[in-house]
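Purpose: get a first structural picture of the assembly so the mutagenesis plan has something to point at.
Setup: two entries, given in the order below. No constraints added.
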Amino acid sequence: MRRWGYRHVITPLVESMDVLDLGLGVEGRRRLFKFTDSRGDVVALVGERTVPVARLAAGKLRGAALPLRLCYAGPVVSTDEARFQHRRETYQVGAELIGASGAVADAEVIALAARCMEATGIRRYQIEVGHAEFFHGIMDAVRLPDGVKAAVRAALAARDFVTLESLLEDTPLRSAEHELLLRFPALRGGLEILDAAAGLVRNERSQRALDELRSVHGLLVEHGIGEVVSLDLGALRDFDYYTGVIFEGYGPDFGRPIAQGGRYDGLLARFGRPAPATGFVVQLDMVSDMLTRVGRTSAVPPLNAAIGWRGEEGLRTALRIAATLRLFGMRAVVDTETRTAENAKAWCEAVGAANLVHCADEPAVTWSARGQRARRLPPEQVAARIAGGAT
Amino acid sequence: MQERVSIAVPTGALFDGARALLKSSGLASVEIGRQLLVEGDGVRLILVRPSDVPAYVDHGAADLGIVGKDVLWETPGSHYELVDLHFGACRLVLAVPNASTLNGPPTWPPLLRVATKYPRTAAAWFEARGQAVEVVQLHGSVELAPQVGLVDGIVDLTATGTTLRENGLRIAAVLGESTARIIANQASLKTRTAAVQAIVARLREAAFRAG
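Result (C-alpha cells, whole complex):
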C-alpha cells in the first residue's frame, strides 16, 4: 500500500466507548466486548478500525491536508462468533481514502483492494461492485406505506426474499421498482446490467448511481482489473452506513467475502470534520484459511546461509560474515553452539539453508553451497560470493 | 471453479418432500436415500441433519440448501432465503396441558416457564410481547416436560396436532408458521450466479407445479 501513497497508522485495540458510540450503529455497538477502566469509564475492544481511523483523521491529523490516504493492520474482535468464521478475533488489513469524492477515488480504493488480495497470494478472485444509492432510490420511489417499507428493509437486511415477496404481493400498487426489488439477488453481471436497470428505474437517485457505476467500471478497466470486476446492483449491505459505491471481494470456492468496502461520506462529520471517505478491509484470517485449504500455505522464506563455528576466533569470523550478508539483504543465522564441521552439515539441512559456512580457528573458512563440494576460501570471498548469488 | 451445484438436503421430516421435489424438477433421477453424498444430474446432493443445513450453506460446503423455516428462525446466518417451497407445513406453537388455565397473553403468569428445542425463537417471541420467560432447552420428548411439572408449557412444532393430543396438551398460542425454503450461500450467488440461479429456477418451478 506504500506504493499507492498510503500512510500506515496505528490505532489502539482498546477504545473509549464515547468514540465508538459516535461512529457505530446499534448492532455494531452490541457486538463489542466492553469493560470499564480504572476510572470507571466504559471502554471496548474495537470490532473494526474504520471508526478509530476516522477519529484520528478528524482529531490528531486535523491539520493534515485532504485527501488523506491511510492504511492500517491489526486484530479486531466481536462477541458475535458467526461474524468471523466462528472466531472471536480476526486480523484485518485496511485502507481509507479520506477527503475525496467521485469515481476516481472510488476506483482507486477498489483497485488497491484488488492488489492487496493479489499480494496475499490468492490467484483467482472476483470483485462485486454495487451502489448504496441505487437501493435508496428504489426505496424512495416504491409506493408503499411506511410500515411496509420498514418491513421490506428488514426482510432485505435478513436476506429473506420469501418474506419480501409476500410483502410486495400484498400491496396493490405495482411499479418497476417492485420488480427490481423482487429480482434483487439476480441483478448482477457486466455493463449490460446497467442498461437493463436503467430501462427499469425512473427515479433520479438510482439513475445517478447507475451513471457513477458506469464511470467507476471504466476506470477499473484502466486500472487493469476489468477482468475480475462484476457489477452487483443487488448488493445488500449496511445501508445506513454506506452512502455510495460499495464492493466485496470473493476468492475461489470460499463461502464468504474476504474483502469488503465502500463509500461512507457521513462518518467524518460525526467527529467534527465533514469529509467524503471510502475504504476497505481484507480479512487476513479468511485468506489464510482459504490458502491452507488449497494447499498453498505462505512459506517462510528460506535461509540464504547457515554459519557454524568452532573456537573463539571462529565465532568472531562467523559474526562478521553474517553481518556482511545481512547488509546485502541475505537471511543468515549464526549457530548458537559450537559444532564440528561434520555436525554442522546436519544442522544446515535441518534449518534448510542454501549455503553452509563453517568457521574454525584458522584464516580460511569452509563453504559448501547446497549440493556442491566444500571449498576453502577466505571469509571475505565467501561473503562476496554468497551475496553475489554465486554458488 | 467447480461448475456442479451442490445442494444440502435435510434428512428427517422434510426428506420425502425434498426427494419428490428433486425428482420432479429433473435434478435427481437417481434413487436417493442410502448414501449421504449423491451425484445427481448436474447437481451434487449432500444429505445432512435438518438443523445442519444452514451451517453447510453458510460455510459454502453447499451452494444451496433445502431447509424448514423453523430451522432458519433458530439459526440465522449469512445465507439468502430465496424460495418458499410450500411443503412440510407446520406451526410452532405454545402448548399447555389440557387442564391448564393458560390461554392467550392476558392469562400468562409474570414469569412463564417453557421447554423447547427452539430456545432462541421462543425467547425472542415472548420478549417481543413483553413477557418474561424462562426457557428450558430440551433435545427430545419435549411433550413430557409439562406433565411432570418441569414447565408451564412447551414451544414445539406441530403439523397435525396428534402428538400434542396424545400427550394431553392443547395449543394456547401460535408463534409462527413454517414451510420448506431454499437458501443460498452468498458467495455462490455472486460468483456462480448463472449455474446457481438456473437450479433455483427449476426447483421454484417444480414447487409451483406441485403446489
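The first strand of chain B starts at residue 5 and ends at 10.
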